[in-house]
Amino acid sequence: MAFNDVECCETFQTHEELLKIVNEKMPEEAELYDLAELFKVFGDSTRIRILYVLFEAEVCVCDLAEALNMTQSAVSHQLKILKQSRLVKSRREGKSVFYSLADGHVSAIIAQGREHIEE
Predict the structure, then answer these.
(1) Contact, 20 vs 67, CB < 8 A?
(2) Separation of alpha carbons 8 and 97, rounded Å
(3) H or E segment to which residue 83 belongs
(4) Is 51 in a helix, a strand, or coil?
(5) Orientation of helix 45-56 relative to helix 72-84, angle to 10°
């Protein structure tokens, strides 16, 4: 869609009361940046696939690699990003490391995204 395809006001007029409300409710710039960074993590289909596996069960890297037909190295790289974003957590059991969703928010975010695209 070109810029000209977007409908705009015919005259420039601001609505001070609305702007006041918006400015009072707008989060700090640092929070907006963090939110944008979080959504970037969801912008990779491999990471989404990993999260879908983790919806079903806590699994080790070997199981994830097998389920997704990927190398352990590739899965580990994506898990590192997911863990840094606090979307997944891990626990060690003997020589294995098991991963799971960090909390219920992760599945809620994905569910809302699916709902949106299916409308």
Answers:
(1) no
(2) 54
(3) helix 72-84
(4) helix
(5) 90
Strand partners for 3:
none
Strand partners, 93: 96
Tell me, what's the pLDDT at 3?
56
Joined together, the tokens standing for residue 51 give 């999260």
Q: What is the pLDDT of residue 13?
A: 87
DSSP state string for 53-72: HHHH--EEHHHHHHHHT--H
Going from the N-terminus, what domains does the chain have, and what CATH number goes with each? 12-118 (1.10.10.10)
DSSP 103: S
Q: Which residues contact 82 (CB under 8 A, 6 or more apart)?
A: 41, 47, 50, 51, 88
Q: How far apart are CA 104 and CA 90, in angstroms?
A: 15
Mean pLDDT of each 10-residue bin along the chain, 119 residues long: 74 90 92 93 95 95 96 96 96 94 93 93
